[in-house]
Amino acid sequence: MTTKRPLNFLCVTTYHKGADFIKSCKAEGNNVYLLTKKKLEHEVWPWEAIDDVFYVENWNQSDVTKGIAYKFRTIKFDRFVALDDFDVEKVALLREHFRMPGMGRTTSHYFRDKLAMRMKAQEEGVNVPKFTALFNDVDINAYADNVSPPWFLKPRLEASATGIKKINNREELWQIVNALQDERDNYLIEKFAPGDVYHVDSLTVDGNVIFSRVSKYLDTPFEVAHGGGVFRSATCKIGTKIEKALTKMNAEVMTAFGMQFGASHTEFIESKDTGELFFLETSSRVGGANLAEMVELASGINLWEEWARIESATLRKEGYTLPKVKNQYAGIVVSLSKFENPDTSSFNDPEIAWRMHKKWHIGMIVVSESADRVMELLDDYTQRIATDFHASIPAPDRSL
C-alpha cells in the first residue's frame, strides 16, 4: 500500500486515449482528474482510476481557464498533463496561467508547430529538409528558384499526414498558396526527399533520454493516408548503423528542444539518394496508431505507464528507475476492412501478440526474437489483408 502524498493530476485530452497513463498515475498514489469533451463521456475510460471528470462541449481557452480556476478553489492541482498532440499547446497555456511546472508555450511550440520545430532544429545544427514559411512572396519565389521540386505543403499544427499535399512545380505552388488566402501563414513547404521514414519513441528524465526504440515505417504515413495503403511499422535491428545513428540524433533533438521529462515520438527520414538523415517532426506525447503497443511488446516498456511514473517522480523530486528492458522485435500491420468485424482466425502464427478489435479495421502485432521473422510475417499478412480484407477511403483534406 503506497504511503506517498497524493498529488492532484489534471489529465487533458480531447480524444479518447491515455487509459494506461491514467491507471499508472493512480497507481502511484495520486488523485486523477480528467478533462475531456462531452461527446466522449460514454467511451471506455478507466473510471476506477479517475477521481472526477470535467466536460467541455467545445474548447474555448478562456472558458476552460475560468472553469479550472473555479475548481482550483477546492482542488489544488499539482500538474497538468496533455495526453494528445492537439492538446499540448492548450495545456501549455494553462500551465503558464496557473504558474504550473512543466512545458510552457515556447517549448511546447517545438513539439507542436512544424515551422517552429524546423527553425529550432536548423538553429541547433540538426539536419532538416530545406523549407520556407509562406509569410512572404519574395521568400517563396526565392525558395522555388533555389530548391527543386517536388515539395510538400504541410500545415503547421496538424498531426500525422493530415493536410499534407505534394507540389510538383512553381505554378502549382502558387495556385495552392493563393487558394489558402488568409490561412497561408499556417503552412510551410519543404523539399520532398524520397526515402525511408523512421520513428523513435522515447522517454526523457532530467533532460536525458533514458529509453528509446527505433522503428521503421514500412509504408510512410503519407503513402498510407493518401494512397489508401496498409499501415505497417517494425522495430529496427538493435546495434545496426541506422539504429545507432537515429538513437543519437533523437537525443540531440530532445536536448535542442529543451525536453526535460516525459514521452516523445519523433520522425526522421533517410534520403534514398544520399543516405543522409533528416529530422522531420516530433511531439511530446506517446505515438498513436497503436505504436505504443508495438514498442511495449518488443521492449517490455509501456510508454504511457512510465510517462506517468516519470511525471509523478519528477513532481515529488524522487528518483525514477526504468524497468528492465527486453530486446525483442515487433511489427504492426493495420488496415481498414471491408468487413465490420473481420474474422482473423486464419492468422494463427504463435508470434501474434495483439489483435485489433475495432469495427471496420483489421490489425495485428507480431513479436519474435528475430527481426527477419517479424518482416517475413508482416509481408505475408500485408499481402493477405490486401487481397481479402482491405478497404480504403479518401484522406481527410483540411488544407484548403
Automatic annotation (TrEMBL):
Classification via PROSITE patterns: ATP_GRASP (PS50975)
Q: Which GO terms describe its molecular function?
A: ATP binding; ligase activity; metal ion binding
InterPro entries (UniProt xref): ATP-dep_AA_Ligase (IPR052032), ATP-grasp (IPR011761), ATP_grasp_subdomain_1 (IPR013815)
Keywords linked to the UniProt accession: ATP-binding, Ligase, Nucleotide-binding
Organism domain of life? Bacteria
Q: A Pfam family for this UniProt protein?
A: ATP-grasp_4
Q: Where is the ATP-grasp domain?
A: 118-312
Q: What is this protein called?
A: ATP-grasp domain-containing protein
The scientific name of the source species is Gelidibacter salicanalis
